[in-house]
Design brief:
Shape: elongated
Distance between the termini: 34 Å
Number of strands: 8
CATH architecture of the largest domain: Up-down Bundle
Radius of gyration: 26 Å
Structural class: mainly alpha
Number of helices: 18
Strand order of the largest sheet: 1-2
CATH superfamily of the largest domain: Fumarase/aspartase (Central domain)
Order of helices and strands: EHEHHEHHEHEEHHHHHHHEEHHHHH
Oligomer: single chain
CATH class of the largest domain: Mainly Alpha
CATH topology of the largest domain: Fumarase C, Chain A, domain 2
């Protein structure tokens, strides 16, 4: 059971709640803040003050005053009209993550919702009632309006949710079956639920979890390649990396040495060649730079996971109500664009190592690792597939955040496109994992030719484990099946009900 406060949610706790389905509870101090904030909204309504989002229209309609008797209709109309998501559906895990993050933001007590709203969000998380939310339709400011509107519909008894077998069904049916009572949204509550960055941040945190695992996997897979090619281990000497000063680079070199400890397949400088190609020699420098990016992304995500991102915000017990722009997704948009580039580079350098494993002009292995070169093509077309994936990544890595299209009659004239950036990052991560799966298959085969009994003890264990997933290449076969098998084995969530968490465009 993890207690939410609105201030302290971490990536690790996020993972436990969203992937391991751990239950949540709410701190009493946070509930007290929610109650105080709600009293302020009720005072505004009863005193007939005019405040944006409470008794006015939205966006370009912010100057339209709403009668008190129409305030509830205003909130429901807002949710229904903004539920304009289109395209493929977000995987269930993304919906769960959005519920969690929207709840955590409301707990800070600056949004003016009733305790009933946060209690209902908690109940949806704990009873695993996850809204069906289309992927496309968000500009990333005023937050993720369309995706969050689909989420908010479920609180009112409308919209759709995922059934226990993962199929979209009418939300009201599941709420009834699980004894969950929907609510009628009161003043400001509709806006508080949809004005935020929870779609891009949910995607971003899930992307981070996958990218972090991918970065670790890329190191032992590269170590296998080192053995398959008789790579020069001197390039990982700690003195080299300490001399540059990037801690992440030093850590990669340290882990590479750890994986390769005891190997009789790697070489020393001058034994076989003086230098390796950059894709081998520069593993700590390139992979280390990706780790620098991951550290940056994690920091920004953990801030945003605990941020208040709706508008307007209520301070000083309602004495100060300010319209601002915390819903603007630029920090996460930039972080996701940065993540896209960093993960794409893991795939780029992996594909170059694949080429060195299969090209007979660059190694002393059978051409294309084939047992019968010429008659059988071996791993030739696996390299083609890797090249195709890294080329696709180069297109997806174009930053989404540099684009902006004005909306709401030019009232909202600069937007972040952060959710697009996060979706593209998810696709790049899946492509990169398949590239690394191909490198893994090729490296396993190369080590077999070189003598896997000479492999480092830690890598020998991995070699044995993965030989149960992908057998030796004794003859040509449909290698697509092998690639997918290794791809799934590398997934950090392959054993959960949310296996297909990738957010494809």
């Amino acid at each position: 059971m993890i207690e939410l406060t609105g201030y302290s949610l971490t990536i690790d706790e996020f993972k436990r709640i969203c992937l391991d389905l751990e239950d949540i509870t709410i701190s009493e101090a946070s509930m007290a803040n929610v109650r105080k904030s709600r009293l302020a909204v009720e005072d505004i309504v009863s005193n007939h003050q005019t405040v944006y989002g409470i008794n006015t229209g939205f966006g370009k309609f912010s100057d339209v005053i709403i009668n008190e008797e129409d305030v509830e209709d205003l909130q429901l109309n807002l949710i229904r009209s903004h539920a304009c998501g289109v395209g493929a559906l977000f995987p269930e895990v993304v919906s769960r993550a959005m519920l969690l993050l929207r709840l955590n933001a409301l707990l800070k007590g600056f949004s003016g919702v009733r305790p009933e709203v946060v209690e209902l969000l908690k109940e949806l998380v704990n009873k695993q009632v996850h809204p069906v939310i289309p992927q496309q339709g968000s500009l990333g400011a005023s937050g993720d309006l369309a995706p969050l509107a689909h989420l908010a519909l479920v609180l009112t008894g409308e919209g759709k949710v995922y059934s226990d077998d993962g199929q979209p069904v009418e939300g009201k049916k599941i709420l009834t079956a699980k004894s969950i009572q929907p609510i009628t949204l009161k003043a400001k509550e509709g806006l508080a639920l949809i004005n935020g960055t929870q779609a891009m941040t949910a995607l971003g945190a899930l992307n981070y979890i996958e990218a972090e695992q991918l970065a670790y996997d890329s190191e032992w897979i590269a170590a296998l390649t080192m053995e398959g090619l008789g790579g020069i281990i001197d390039a990982f000497h700690p003195a080299i990396h300490k001399a540059r000063g990037f801690k992440q680079q030093e850590h990669v070199a340290e882990r590479m040495n750890n994986w390769l400890e005891g190997s009789r397949l790697v070489t020393r400088q001058g034994e076989k060649r003086v230098q390796d190609a950059y894709s081998i020699r520069c593993i700590p420098q390139v992979h280390g730079a990706t780790w620098q990016t991951l550290d940056y992304v994690k920091e920004k995500l953990e801030i945003e996971m605990n941020a208040v991102t709706d508008n307007p915000l209520i301070f000083d017990d309602g004495q100060l109500v300010i319209s601002g722009g915390n819903f603007h997704g630029q920090p996460i948009a930039l972080a996701m664009d940065f993540l896209k580039i960093a993960v794409a580079e893991l795939a780029n350098i992996s594909e170059r190592r694949i080429e060195r494993l299969v090209n007979p002009q660059l190694n002393d292995l059978p051409p294309f690792l084939s047992p019968k070169p010429g008659l059988e093509s071996g791993a030739m077309i696996m390299q083609y597939a890797a090249a195709s994936l890294v080329s696709e990544n180069k297109t997806l890595a174009h930053p989404a955040s540099v684009d902006s299209i004005p909306s709401s009659a030019n009232q909202e004239d600069h937007v972040s496109m952060g959710t697009i950036a996060a979706r593209h990052a998810g696709s790049i991560i899946q492509n990169a994992r398949r590239v690394l799966a191909i490198e893994c298959i090729c490296a396993l085969q190369a080590i077999e030719y070189q003598g896997h009994e000479k492999s480092a003890p830690k890598l020998q264990k991995l070699w044995n484990d993965f030989r149960h997933i992908v057998p030796t290449i004794a003859s040509d076969r449909v290698f697509s099946d092998d690639i997918e098998a290794v791809y799934h084995a590398l997934s950090p969530v392959s054993e959960t009900r949310f296996e297909n968490m990738a957010c494809y465009i």
